[in-house]
Amino acid sequence: MNSLDHNKEAKLKRKRLISIVLPSLEVGGAELSNWQLAEEFLALGYAVELVTIHPPGTDDLQPPEGATLVCLGQDRLIKSVVPLVRYFRLAKPDFILAAMWPLTIICIFSQLVGARNARIVVSEHIDFRYATKHSGMAKFFNKHLARFIYSRSDAVVAVSKGVAESLTKCVSIPVRKISVIYNPIRDRALSYQEFADDGLLKWWHSGDHKIVTIGKLKAQKNQKLMLDSMKLVKEHRDIRLLILGDGPLRRELECQVEETGLKTVVRMPGIRSDPYPYLLKADLFVLSSDFEGLGNVITEALSCGVPVVSTDCPSGPAEILEDGRFGILVPVRDKDALASAVITSLDGDHDAEALKARAAEFNPKSAALQYLALWNKPARI
Q1: Is residue 168 domain-shared with residue 231, that is, in the same domain?
Q2: What pLDDT digit, counting tens, does each position of 125-165 carry?
Q3: What dihedral angle (degrees, nearest 10) is formed by the CA atoms of 70, 73, 79, 81?
Q4: Domain residues for 299?
Q5: Cα distance between residue 347 and residue 12, in whole Å
Q6: Are 248 and 312 contained in the same domain?
Q7: What global pTM score does this model have?
């Protein structure tokens, strides 16, 4: 066998490589969704490398078994261009999936320089109309230049119809060129985390109603509204609220708990990468966000048969809950409406099997196959 035949045979034997590029593997909706996609791609026979830009954090997710983690170790996304080009040239991926603006833009450019033969799909996870970071020069770039950059990709994915609409409005991408693929729900069979603090579980069970919310402690998630509404609920029901997550507003929220007399009914134990041990024991899940891309935590709650109350924020909750069929939607930033909905849901009857069936529509294999279809049938803008 000559060297050319040998190289051809080796290429045929090599598993096709999917490189998933993310800012980091910190616990968040986009990161968890891409983690789940990585696992599905592995199950379908692909090699998978998770490529992160930022240095690893202590609470970061570990890659699924069989996947390789490549950390570029850059403190700013803009510094990742040269390392990404170098990575693409060495790894020679067949398919690239890049998530979250502005990394999506950076990755398209890097792919054009370092891996022109690879097919690239970019996924956006936030509504561009409401993301505060998309302001000033960013808005100018999105309006006048981003469409050209996005056109160099094989496909643009929006994780909800609302995100797709925002891409059309803010980036001028024709709606017919955008594919909506909902984020997959995590497989509950993979849940392994136990309660680290028996005292926390004992406290949570000490009230009549166990409520949970999950999300980064930041302005977008508006946990301040959550606490304002729970102060009202506390006057009528014996509740215990777990706020799972961490973030820049932790101290401010802790002060609010102290000042509003909620210390006996609220706990903020920090990040829990696996929410299912908590969701499976909850009586209600509440989301108080001002805006979302989709709201993965809602589908996770539904998968456990847990009723949901959510702000009707753009974008995602109304799509998941089918305009209130599978949960209660309330106006954004309305503490009275949120408190009333929480009491109504706590007192009501719920069809847990119907909620689980709705969540099952967000299954990981379906999402993975949709991404593979885009790579195999690229649609240039």
Answers
A1: no
A2: 999 988 755 556 666 677 778 889 999 999 999 999 999 99
A3: -10
A4: 188-360
A5: 60
A6: yes
A7: 0.89
